[in-house]
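The passage that follows is intended for readers who have already worked through the single-chain material. We present the inputs for a multi-component assembly, then the predicted structure in tokenized form, and finally a short commentary. You are encouraged to pause after the input and sketch how you expect the pieces to fit together before reading on.
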Amino acid sequence: KQEVTQIPAALSVPEGENLVLNCSFTDSAIYNLQWFRQDPGKGLTSLLLIQSSQREQTSGRLNASLDKSSGRSTLYIAASQPGDSATYLCAVLYNQGGKLIFGQGTELSVKP
Amino acid sequence: DTEVTQTPKHLVMGMTNKKSLKCEQHMGHRAMYWYKQKAKKPPELMFVYSYEKLSINESVPSRFSPECPNSSLLNLHLHALQPEDSALYLCASSGGLAGVGEQYFGPGTRLTVT
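Having made your guess, compare it with the prediction:
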């Protein structure tokens, strides 16, 4: 069964810390992987998309890596800010034309 | 412009009502999606349209009826819903074939069934 797991479920850090969110997937034959952010009661905001042939993607303070052989992706957030507080979701696409398989998300709280 | 719009923002309906949710994008995307999201859970895929044709139906009850009138619009028609259908309904779109490109989500419609 193709599953996506995110650990931890919740994380609280002081402002300014660098942090890493983890995503693991059971089947390494992925097509791409996407990281999203969701604020309470809102839609999802796409942060980064990594194709299966890529090792990492960067956008501003965010860096996402992909290691297919170990079935892992990490989202690195540098110099965290209270505005980064949100739920972060990892989603894996296994087949072209298929559906995204979502993790349960990590709820991040950055304290001032 | 990477915007997907959804109307209405909130909807309260009785179990005998008929209502529709609307989604629109002007990014030229040819794949559009409906998701349902319950509190503290990830989105669950309901339907996928690719080039205005229904390509995936995740065994959704017939009280939910999707429609894709053109490449920019996606509707979800609701009829005889149950209280457990109360949720945030999210629309998304992506370029190219369904599921291939980066998915962009709308802000959602918060549905309450009374």
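Commentary: The two ends of chain A are 41 Å apart (CA to CA). Chain A touches chain B through 24 residues (CB under 8 Å). How closely did your sketch match?
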